[in-house]
Amino acid sequence: LDRLPVPFVLDHFAKLRPSALGGDVHRQVLRWLRDGRAWVKLSGAYLVTEAPEQQSDDCAALARSFLEAAPSQIVWGTNWPHA
After folding, report:
1. Long-range CB contacts (within 8 A, 24+) of 17-22
2. CB-based contact 73:38 (threshold 8 Å)
3. I need a surface site. Which of 11, 24, 33, 37 has the fewest CB within 10 A?
4. Residue 23 scores a pLDDT above 70
């Protein structure tokens, strides 16, 4: 992705699980956000949650990390309609 000549969008919390917070891939996504290379779409938390029954806000810290890094690079969506 670093070699792409255009900015890009990562959907569904960049497909990172909440347990990835602070890891290498998470830090790379934050760099892309801060550099204006990427946007992250905050949608489909149910696709990345690690909570049983998808009934938790375990993705909140992940969302906050993106917002704190580069609030202008965040896109919100409902992920509706979906299959």
Report:
1. 17/48, 17/49, 17/50, 18/48, 18/49, 18/50, 18/58, 18/59, 18/61, 18/62, 19/50, 20/62, 21/61, 21/62, 21/65
2. yes
3. 24
4. yes
